[in-house]
Structures are given as C-alpha cells and as structure tokens.
Amino acid sequence: xxxxxxxxxxxxxxxxxxxxxxxxxxxxxxxxxxxxxxxxxxxxxxxxxxxxxxxxxxxxxxxxxxxxxxxxxxxxxxxxxxxxxxxxxxxxxxxxxxxxxxxxxxxxxxxxxxxxxxxxxxxxxxxxxxxxxxxxxxxxxxxxxxxxxxxxxxxxxxxxxxxxxxxxxxxxxxxxxxxxxxxxxxxxxxxxxxxxxxxxxxxxxxxxxxxxxxxxxxxxxxxxxxxxxxxxxxxxxxxxxxxxxxxxxxxxxxxxxxxxxxxxxxxxxxxxxxxxxxxxxxxxxxxxxxxxxxxxxxxxxxxxxxxxxxxxxxxxxxxxxxxxxxxxxxxxxxxxxxxxxxxxxxxxxxxxxxxxxxxxxxxxxxxxxxxxxxxxxxxxxxxxxxxxxxxxxxxxxxxxxxxxxxxxxxxxxxxxxxxxxxxxxxxxxxxxxxxxxxxxxxxxxxxxxxxxxxxxxxxxxxxxxxxxxxxxxxxxxxxxxxxxxxxxxxxxxxxxxxxxxxxxxxxxxxxxxxxxxxxxxxxxxxxxxxxxxxxxxxxxxxxxxxxxxxxxxxxxxxxxxxxxxxxxxxxxxxxxxxxxxxxxxxxxxxxxxxxxxxxxxxxxxxxxxxxxxxxxxxxxxxxxxxxxxxxxxxxxxxxxxxxxxxxxxxxxxxxxxxxxxxxxxxxxxxxxxxxxxxxxxxxxxxxxxxxxxxxxxxxxxxxxxxxxxxxxxxxxxxxxxxxxxxxxxxxxxxxxxxxxxxxxxxxxxxxxxxxxxxxxxxxxxxxxxxxxxxxxxxxxxxxxxxxxxxxxxxxxxxxxxxxxxxxxxxxxxxxxxxxxxxxxxxxxxxxxxxxxxxxxxxxxxxxxxxxxxxxxxxxxxxxxxxxxxxxxxxxxxxxxxxxxxxxxxxxxxxxxxxxxxxxxxxxxxxxxxxxxxxxxxxxxxxxxxxxxxxxxxxxxxxxxxxxxxxxxxxxxxxxxxxxxxxxxxxxxxxxxxxxxxxxxxxxxxxxxxxxxxxxxxxxxxxxxxxxxxxxxxxxxxxxxxxxxxxxxxxxxxxxxxxxxxxxxxxxxxxxxxxxxxxxxxxxxxxxxxxxxxxxxxxxxxxxxxxxxxxxxxxxxxxxxxxxxxxxxxxxxxxxxxxxxxxxxx
Length: 1129
What we know:
Helix content is 21%, strand content 31%. The protein is of the alpha+beta class. A 6-stranded parallel β-sheet has the order 54-57-58-59-60-61, with no helix packed on it. Strands 21-20-19-18-34 form a 5-stranded mixed β-sheet. It starts with 27 loop residues before the first strand and ends with a helix.
C-alpha cells in the first residue's frame, strides 16, 4: 500500500565502506579500480567490441576510458577539453559499437570500440551537461545522433558517417535531450529543457513543434532533463522539472496535465517506471535538498522522503533481489547508495569512502559467469570505479537501469505501452484524490480488437452495503469506463473490477478498498485553492496590482462559499434526499471552481514574470468543443504567443485564439489585424454562448466582428476570437501574420492620473506563422456536400464557400395542349438559380416529380415525360450542366415511407431509363433489403445514412455491387447524447469534423446534413431539435463551429484524394508513408468512435476515442505526406 512518507536519516547509522542492509538483496563488491581522474558522470555499460560481454565506459575529466569485466583498462582516449557528461553507444549487429561524446572544447566525436576516431565535428560552442542521444528520427532505418552546445544550437548528424543533417536554434542552453515518437505519428520528436526555463519540442527535421514555459532559470549543471513515458492509456507524456521546484506533466501537444511543487530545485534526477506494477506509471525525482518524490502518472504525490542527501542524478528502478518486486536505488553526492521498496522503506544502504557525483547505479552484463547482472558505480573526485555482483537476473524486471534509461540516452520508458496484455487500470482511485462530482475512471487496453467487444465492469460496495456499478464495451485498442461515486458516509468503499471476453473469460480482475470521509478532500482542495490564490496575489502585488485584487476577491469568494456550505455538508447523510442531492451538486461546483482557481493562480504568477502591463493571456488549446469555453485556461504564458500552422493553397485555416482576462475588471478588447500578405484573407469572428436543447451553454455561434472589433471579457474569464484565414493564390513558403489584442481599459489605463493625457492600451500579441506547401488539393467536386439548403439569396455565397456543391431545385413548369400533350417547359424560374452556380462544380437535384398530365405510368404520361426530359437535358446543357451534374430526386427517403413509394420510384426510374439511360436518379435513406434490390437497377446516386457506410450488411452489399456513386448524409446525429438531441454540444469531431474523413475511409464521395437552415425553429433559442448549421443574421448567415468543422473535413478529404492519386508516382519511402496514412492512421482515427456510437456507448467513451489530439496527430502525419510528395515531384 502506497503511503506519503517523510523520513530523515540519522548520520550515526552510516557505516562507512560497506553495506548495511535492512534486508539482504545480495549485493557484493566484485572489484574497484582507481582511474586517477575526476569522474563526473555515471558509467555506461555496452558491448563495444562485439565480444559478447559488456564493457564499462567511464568519462574522465579529459578522457574516455574503457574497462573490461575485471576492471582492467582496455583503452583511454584523450579529448580536446573537459568531459562533463557521458557517451551514447550504438551497438551494431556483427560490428563493433560506435561511441559518441562531446566536450567543452566544441568537439563532437564518434569513436569505434577500440577508441579510434571514426569521425568528428566542430560545434559552435562548448557542450557541457548535455549528453548525445541516438534515435532513428525519421524511421528510415538509419540512426541519427543529436547533440547540443551552449548557444542553444541542436545538431543532428548521420550516426554512421557524421554528415550534418540539420541544426536548429532553441531558446536557452539545453540539458540532456529525450527522444521518442511523442505524438505517435511514426516519426520521433526531441524534447529539451533549457536553462531559460522552457520545455522545447522539435520534430524529426529540427522544426519547432511547441514551447512550454516552466520557469526557473538555471545554470547549465543545474538544469533538469526531461523524461518521456507512456501512461496507462498508452498516450505519451513528458515530465519536466524546473530550478524553481516545479514539476509538470505535459501531453504530446504541450498541454499541461498536472503540476507538483517540489519546494526545491531539481536537476537531472527524473526517472520513470511502474514500481508497484499496478499498470500506472510512477515518476521519481530527487531535489537538490535531498527529498525523494514519487508521483503517480495522474499527479498524485505518493512519496515525500527527506533522505538528507543531495543528488543530481536519477535513481534506478529494478528488481534488486529477484523476488518479482521492483525497488528504487539511488546514489547521493555524499557517497551513500540507498534502496527503497514499494512502500518507501529502506531495504539497503551502502556508504562509499568517496563522493558519488551525478551518479545513477548502472546495471548490465559485465560478466558472463552467472545469469545475474552487475552494477557499476563511479566515485567522483576519487577516480574510483566500483563493480558489484547482484541478484538481478538477466530476466528480472528492470524499468530504469542507467542515468538516461539506456545506451541511446533516450530517457523514454514505454513499458506500459509495449505490453500486449489486456489491462484495466484505475486512474484516480486514491483516498486523497476523490472529490465530490468525480467519477472513478479506468483506462482499458485491448490488445486484440475484434468484432466481439470486451466487457468491462466495476462495482463499488459502499459502507452501508449498497452497491454502485458501471459497465461498458471495449471495441478498439483503448477504452474508458467511469463509475459515478457519491461519498455521503464515512467508511471503507470496496471496489472490484473486471475485464472479460464476450464469452465470459476473465482477462483482468482487480480490487481495492479506500477509506473515504465525505467532503474532506473537497475542503482540503478549497483550502489549497485559497492559499494558492493569496500566495499568487502576494507575489504579483507590486507588478500586477489589478490581478492581485482579482485573486484575493476570488479567494474570499471561495472561503465564503465553503463556509456557507459547511453546515449543509455536516448534515449529510440525511433522510432528505433532495437536500443531499443539492449539497452534492453545490459541492461539486465548488470543487470545479477551486481547481480552476489553482490554475488561475499559477497562470497569474507566470504573468507576473512578464511586464507590468499584462492584462490578457492569449492561448490556443482545442478548438472543436462547444462546452465550457469560458472556463478554459492557458497552460503557460507566452508573449507573444507563437502559433505555427502548415497548410496548402485553397484551404480555409481556422485559428482559435482564447483570451484570458487576469485583471479585476471586465475588459473591452479590440482585435487589430494589420494588412495580411497578398493572397491571404483574414476574417475575424468571435464565439458566443447559445442555449442548447438541454439547457447548457453551447459556444457554437461565430458571428463576424463588427467594425469596432471590440468584445467584452469578464474578470478571470476566457473568451475566444476565431480567425478564418483563406489561403488564396500565394507563394509556397513561410508567411507571418500578427494579431494584436488591445485591452482598451487594461492595466495602467484607468489608473493613470485624471488630468487629460494619452495612455496606450496594453497589447497582447499573437504571431501566426503559416507554412504553405507547394501542393494542390483535389478539386471541390472530389467530394459532394448537400445540406438541403437555399439555392439563392444571401446564404448562397456562404454555402459555396463552405463546400456545399449539391443543391435541390424545382422542376421546370410543363405546359400542355388541349389534349394534355406536353408542348414545352418553362424553366425561367431556374435561370437565376443556376446563374448563381456559374463557374462552380455543382450537382443539381430536381426535387419531386415534374407536374405532367396523364396518369402516372400511362402511355400519355410516358410520352409527356420523354418530351419533358429531352427539353430538360437541352436546357441544362445550355446552362453549362452536363448529365453528370444534375439528377432527378423524385422521392425523399422512399424506403422509410414504405413499399408504395419504393415502387413508385422504381416505376419512374424504369421510365427514365427507357427514355435516356444517362439521366441520373438520386435516392437517400435506408430501407429493407428487398427495397434496395428493387431500386438498384434504376439508381445512380446512393445516399444512405452515414452510419451505414461501414456496414457489411446485405443492404450495403447491394449498394456497393451496383458500382454507382455512393454519398451519405446525416439526419439522426447518432453521436449526440441523448441521440438526436443536444447536437450543438455533441462530440463535434465525430459528428462534423471527421465526417468527410469517415466517408473517404469507406469509399464514399459525398456527405450531407439535415440541414443548413430549414425549419421553423429559431436556432438562437433553446429548441428540442438543433438541426440548423447556421444562425440567421441581419444581412447574411452567422456561421457556427459545427459548420466550420464540416468545411475543414471536406478540405482534408480533398487533400487525401490528391495524395491517393500520387501514391503510384512516388518513391518507396513516400509510398510507405502513404500506405501507413491510408491503411492504419485513418482507420485508427475514425473507426473507434463509430463502433462505440453504433452500440450506444456513453459520451465519455466517445470523447476519449474521438479526441482532438488524435485529429491533430493525423493531420500532422497527412501534411508530412504532403511534404514528402511535394519533394518528389
């Protein structure tokens, strides 16, 4: 059982020169050797000469030394100046290893296993405390080696030949980098922490992905180094620590997931593993004051051990005594080696007669005489190196075995994601983490997805014996399960959970008891929030007085709300169920407010390190979400905010800028956009809340800004400015736009002296860099969109601009003679409609039957129909529409209305086929198999519901076997919860943004939505049904986030279509990337949420699988393919 610990050593217990085990892990000294040099870093163990044994590599002050298994010196290579770190080693099959090391004399060297120089390169400046890292960055089968220098230059070389591949400048002096595929797009990223207090991520080509400020500037030796790990949900996390004592965990996009204050500076002491083997990662670090922190992957502090010994190196995580349980082993600078078990109890300590500086106990196969690993430790100024025998088996669990995890110095532990066993892991089932309103969350991994979902369930037995349960199905590789929990009585809450197959075979079981007291954690959270707000207010009092006022006001409000609630909380449990429910609801709201208050305090403290005029913080964050936008918070303060986007010509690129007001007043904020470069058109919008069908705010409407371009932002609240950037005829390359947000009544403006004079408004600037690729999307007609929209008027331009290229129109007016014979048709009412489509690739659908004389199906009717259709074809040709650009749409959803309508459609279709078989007939909706079989011979455009596209049903087999055009449409909104309602606050990615991608995935070339703006309901109001995609404006429609999402999906469809056409024309490496994109990444993006929707799983499950981070990763991969294709053209 984990516990929070504070342990102090008694120096009198230290036994110098030998071990003093609390238990016997079987560690014994094999040999020691005096190398007569200063050893300032940990050893590296690797088979450098390909003899089957690992040698010991030690970096001396100005030399690299190789030792054999007995400690005998093999060679000593002298470098130009001082070594302050350790090498990376590339082991090669059948060949000696290559060794990479840099010194303070600007020299970066590659040696072979005999200590001979293979290649060298001059850097711009010294390399000090930043070790090289090896990685196949672009996954081309050739390794790269990356090093840095003190100017902040990052160098990437071909590891074998030393050719410089790229170099890139970052802010500050970097410490040891970490390398892995952070965003899981198939290419690696490099992660740095710099002396300037920034986390920086570069992609495989050295381009900046993002920066994240953690603060705490530091000397080079004191700068921490990042570590990477895959959490229980298989997603990659970055952990970074600052010289100010802040520990942060970031996701692949740089969003801060949690932070912990360690109360002291932290050097490169981070390591990661799963110490208690519960399926959740544990982060370890040691502060410069000698405190060991163990933090759960969700940010919960598990250990706080004061071991009275400073350390600047990471600890090892390994099964020391081969008992199946992992231990944590570290060295302190005063020469002490200490081992801890899973509970934080000391199981081993050893006192060296010398210091052990920057030292991680390092494990490897130095000898071949046993099945056990050896452990090597270096002894600082003494020059001593020690080798110990251990009981660690070569098959034992080992999660972190050297300073930076492995010989490549990757600093990445992906043990949880590499396991192929099914898992079900609680994420927040900890006594001090459960607060009112929380759900107990489980991450689930399914290594072998199949059409038969796994069944996941959890049961909670409350102290009174009552039971709460939750269950779900797992259809893809990952899933989630949430159990609502109301803690209304003190006592033990017993949880059991299970993951099983559809046949009842148990794959995972687990159980845990947690003692909980009602509202205790809630009250503690409020207390922390109040303290955090007041501390931040004190910190920024002088520089940001308006923010200090706002923070103290919020602290007072939290204290008052908590005090007002305390009496009601003490009355729980009570027999009055309504009172209990209201108390829980109010407490849950207070918990959410307190969490946001802690974020607010952290953001304002960051802002306090900026200039004193800061009033607004600009940030981006996710954009395809209509819920709780006003509560969103920045993860960091960046001035100016840097936004980088990669685009192709013809796209509309939306950029969502959130503005957080850190002052004590409502700010009037003006958006100032200088003239953009030629070829770019920037239109500013802003979001406003609209009531949803369930009485929630939906930040869906995006009206254009008026001429003033001013919006109001309340204190400590967020608002959004939405920039629609149209990429027109512009040269490929980088183009920079700048937006300035002026707080007209911001800090310093209203506080200036009352006598008349000018005071400039404080500005928050955003710099947007667009990388325009030399690539052409497929034409707009590659994908069809129909929204049953107006075909004239103010809406038409908006429809065309958003890719709507299918319109319904009325038939011409037939005229007949006295004998009811057709004479001619009056198409004049179509003239202005079709004129609006001129120059556009539009398909026109003639709705209904033409008003012809004669009984339907009679000889007269057939004659009249033939004459009418001949004139229709001629008229459409004169208007510029060939037979591929119009179709007959006689009946809407015939299958849904019954056989009468199906038979009528079939009869009409047969007549049309006899008259002119090239005239297309359109049908939408579903129906029974015999209906589809009957309609198939007469149809040219099938438009089933979008959720039917993936079906391998008899109906869809008929559709696909026909070989005719396949579009789709959506009028059921299956992703919304409840289904069909609450459309404004549905999962926008699954329902709107990814719909075209889903159609592409299933070989459909069209999508549709009911509807653009039909119906009597006013979409500005709360309505039961929320079909309308736009809102009525005074002179033109007001767009919505949903409507913008549809356009973005269509543009991605056009990019994918163009890429598919290039697939056969590219080289093998590019073709491999395209195959990965089409056959793996696209299905992984769109399939899981579809399957979850079809079986009716809950919103939280769909949100987890259809998350914006996955879309961003897919789009990065798609645009990487665009770059690869462009470079081969």
